[in-house]
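Let us practice reading a record.
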Amino acid sequence: MTNPLDVTVRLDDRVRLMSAVLGATDWPLKSQTKKPHGTHLHARSTRKFLEVVKNHPAVQAMQGLLDQNAPLEAFFTYALQASWPNMTMTDTPSWVPPRWGEQLADFYVQARLATWWKNEEASWQASLYESQKMFKDVAFKPMLKTFFGDVPENLIFIPNISYPTDIDLAIRAGDELVCVAPPRLAWGDSPPWPYDEDPGYIYRTALQQYGKLLVHAYLLKHAEELKSVIETPMPVSDQFKGRYPTWQEQFTVLFVAAISALYMEKHLSKAEINAYVLMERKMHGMTSLPGMISVLRRYLAAYEEGKYKELIDFLPSFPRQFKIAAKIVSL
């Protein structure tokens, strides 16, 4: 069993249903075009199994949304707020196509997903067991509390060996912060790694998704107090700025990467954090990450001394401290 006070690991048929519908669209092909990668055998087998229902109205409705660049997070947020197996909710979002809940429920029946999942139970249970093993003794909330105050939401991790195969999803549903994550990609066309292969990867994957949700809500909550703060440009590379053009995006990405690194440093090793920082610098142009880590390390020290109660107490001085730290670590 996982620790009920921190991260709970579970499977969810609503997520598996939405994943299956996504697998019947053209999304898998397009994702391979953008970034060729090996996928889990279950994902590939599911796509073949669903060939006979690829023209189902539920699939066509999702395809229409994908063609309009609807974010995957929206689909899975809808799924986790819907009833099972009817896939309905009291207040349906305006973007949801008419009768989509009814169509999704019918897709579940017409595609014989109950039988398919039963046949594939061993693969799903393996992903569940591997993930539970990773989160057995993990406690993220003590670290999150130092920045955001008490985090009342339940932290949920859902391993997903279907689709999407290369994207982690952060979902806020009711009183839950949910990370829906595929297994870690391997090199080239090799199948992905088991969930328990790399603790550092799985910890930062989950912590970054929870962090994104918390930072987003926190910045909105304190938007008025941060007006002058966000006017100061971040000392980031042009590559990074091109991917994340706004102050809020830049801060969120760097912040969640930094707290993930600090968690790994404390619970794994210094070598783990060094390898991670190097990878982020090379792959994503995150040259300012060492500076953010340095700033947050100082924040945590001051927090322990009682100088800050939470992040908002520190953010007014953040631009100046981050600029200095980024310059120092670049020397």
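A brief commentary: Residues 264 and 273 are 6 Å apart (CA to CA).
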